[in-house]
Amino acid sequence: MLVDAEAMDAEGASKGGPAIPSGTILPVRLNQTISSAKSRTGQVITGRIMQDVWLSRGVRIRAGTKVIGHIVERIPAGTGAPASISLQFDKLVSPHQTTFITTNLRAIAGFMQIVEAQIPPIGPGESDVYRWLTTVQVGGDVVYGEGGPVTTGENPNQIVGKQVNGGVLGQVRANRGANCRGAIDGNDRPQALWVFSSDACGVYGLEKISIAHAGRSDPIGLIVLASDSGNFKIAGGTGMLLRVNANSRN
Q1: CB 193, CB 167: distance < 8 Å
Q2: Weakly modelled stretches of the chain, pLDDT under 70
Q3: Is 56 helix (H, G, I), strand (E, B) or coil?
Q4: Residue 242, Cβ density class (10 Å: 0-12 exposed, 13-18 middle, ≥19 buried)
Q5: pLDDT confidence of residue 248
Q6: How many independent structural domains does the chain possess?
C-alpha cells in the first residue's frame, strides 16, 4: 500500500510508512450497498482506492488498497427524525501494512455519475482514437483525453490538472457555494481526484440525500448522510472523495 524502498525489510513487509499528510484526498469506490433501513450498527463497510495517491517521492498509496470503515449509527425513517446513516472510515489495509486514518467527506457521487464521467459524451468519429476523446468529470471539469490537460467547465483556458493513469491529478479548488475549502494545512500538492472535478463538493446524483455532517468538525471523522424523504440506500459502486484529517496516524 505505502511503497517506500527504505522502509521494507528482507521479507518485503513494511516496518511503517510515513504519516499521511493532512489534506490528502483519497478517491474511494464503495464496495457494498448500505441502507438506512437494513444496515446494522457496527457493520463493517469497505471501499477501494481507485487511483494511486502519491504522498512523496517514491511513496504512494496504491490503487486497489482496501479502505475499511463501519456503521456508527443508523436511524430509519418513521422515528420522527430524518433517516440517516452515520459512518467512519478507520483504516487503509494492504497485505503488508495497516494505516489508521481519520477522514471527512468532500464529495459523493452515485454509480451512474461515476460511469458517465468515464464515457466521452460525444462518440468517436471515423478517425478518432477513443482514449483521446474528451470526458467530463463529476462536477464539470473537462479532461482532454489520455495524458491531456484538465480544465474547468466554465473556462477551457483555465488548466486545473492533468489526466494520468487511473484518473487525474489536480490542485483542489475551493467551492464557496458548497462550503468546501481548497488546499488545507499547507498541503497544496496535486491530488488524486479520479473522476471528480477539482472543486467537486457535496452530493451528485443521489436524489434527496444530503451530507448532514462531513466529519470536518466535532465529531471529527463522523460522516452522516441523511434524507427527510424516507429510507434510502447508498449503492455499491458509489464514489467518494475523502480528505484525511490532521489526526490520522500510522
Answers
A1: yes
A2: 1-18, 123-130, 247-250
A3: strand
A4: buried
A5: 54
A6: 1
